[in-house]
Design goal:
It comes from Dimargaris verticillata. With about 270 residues, this protein is mainly alpha-helical. It is built from 9 helices and no strands. Among the domains are: about 100 residues, no CATH class; about 60 residues, no CATH class.
Length: about 270
């Protein structure tokens, strides 16, 4: 952490308490000889004048918006002039008469270079999300019957099908039957299973001739090629189909789903 301390107080290990404006002017003289980026110069000056810039807000804004080395030098000279005036008006600075504040640090004037003291480390507080909330025991609230001294119905006198207990002296105390929903209603619980709603989820039957999946509407339980082959000639699977004769049309039951255009209409 020595580098961070030197940024705020370059004379940290020299045993001297030099004015901050004196160190800033020496730093600007070095920057004129050694090429340095303006962002680094601006950041270093903010650290050197850390205790004085909150008292001179207008010069702090000019230092933040300076875009040239000469502009930064003008701000440093103006701030040095004001700090010198405050130093002349204040009592002489004596290192042997320094007092400590409530945190145990020395009270050093703001125009004197001083290191930055970090605040003490505070462990993070655990979030309330990780800790289960402590539930307080709630007392049961007094019912309407207890507050107004209304007699309640006993289980023997209360109808089983009523939704809520009605007052015995009320003329509108009637038994309400349970609600029933239509099977086709969207709120009905008697819906068919989802497997029967989609035609692709129906049970697939194999073809009686070749073993492939048969057409669901074919009366012969055959697939399309086997059904058309049967319409042409009811023969074995290996034989080639031939055209039907007029005498054989009556013997073949034509399938209305796979009716071949080669077979004559009955």
């Amino acid at each position: 952490m020595t580098a961070e301390g030197n940024l705020y107080n370059p004379a940290l290990f020299s045993g001297q308490y030099l004015p901050s404006y004196q160190l800033a002017q020496e730093y600007m003289a070095i920057c004129r000889q050694v090429p340095t980026s303006l962002s680094a110069i601006r950041g270093h000056l903010f650290k050197i004048f850390r205790a004085s810039l909150p008292r001179h807000v207008e010069l702090r804004s000019k230092l933040a918006t300076a875009r040239a080395l000469d502009d930064i030098s003008l701000v440093v000279d103006a701030l040095a002039q004001k700090l010198q005036e405050e130093e002349r008006m204040a009592p002489p600075f004596d290192i042997t008469q320094l007092t400590r504040n409530s945190e145990g640090h020395y009270d050093i004037p703001h125009y004197i270079s001083q290191p930055y003291i970090r605040p003490p480390y505070e462990p993070p507080v655990k979030s309330s999300k990780t800790q289960p909330p402590v539930l307080e025991e709630k007392k049961p609230a007094a019912s309407l019957a207890d507050t107004h001294h209304i007699p309640t119905l006993t289980p023997a006198s209360t109808p089983a099908s009523t939704k809520r207990s009605a007052r015995p002296d009320s003329p509108s105390a009637t038994v309400q039957p349970p609600k029933r929903t239509c099977p086709t209603s969207p709120n009905s619980t008697d819906k068919p299973p989802k497997a029967d709603q989609h035609p692709g989820n129906r049970r697939k039957v194999k073809c009686a001739h070749c073993g492939n999946v048969s057409s669901p509407k074919c009366p012969h339980l055959r697939c399309k090629p086997c059904c058309r082959q049967r319409q042409l000639k009811p023969t074995t699977r290996d034989e080639k189909p031939t055209s039907l004769t007029e005498s054989a049309v009556d013997e073949v039951v034509l399938c209305t789903v796979h009716r071949s255009h080669t077979a004559p209409q009955a």
